[in-house]
Amino acid sequence: MGRFSELKIIQDAAPRSEEMRTNPEPKQKRVGKRDHPDYTQISVYIRKQPYHEAKRNLIGSDKDFSDLVNELLANWLSKGNV
Fold first, then answer.
1. What is the pTM of this model?
2. How is the chain split into domains, by residue range?
C-alpha cells in the first residue's frame, strides 16, 4: 500500500458537498464554559493529593472539577461562611 492509501479510503467515505446540501444537519453550537458569559476562569493553589483524589472520584460522573468547585463554593456561601 502506498503512503496515502488510507487517506484515499477516508476521502472516499466522506460525504460529497452535494450530499451535504441535500441532507443538512441542524447546527447547534454548544457554548463551553470558556465562552459562556456566566463563567470566569480563575487560578488557585491547592495541594496535589486532594486534587488528584477528587479528579479520580469524578471519573465516570457527569461532573467535572469546575462543577465540584462551584458546588462547594455555593454551599460554603449559603452557610454564611464569609
1. 0.58
2. 44-82
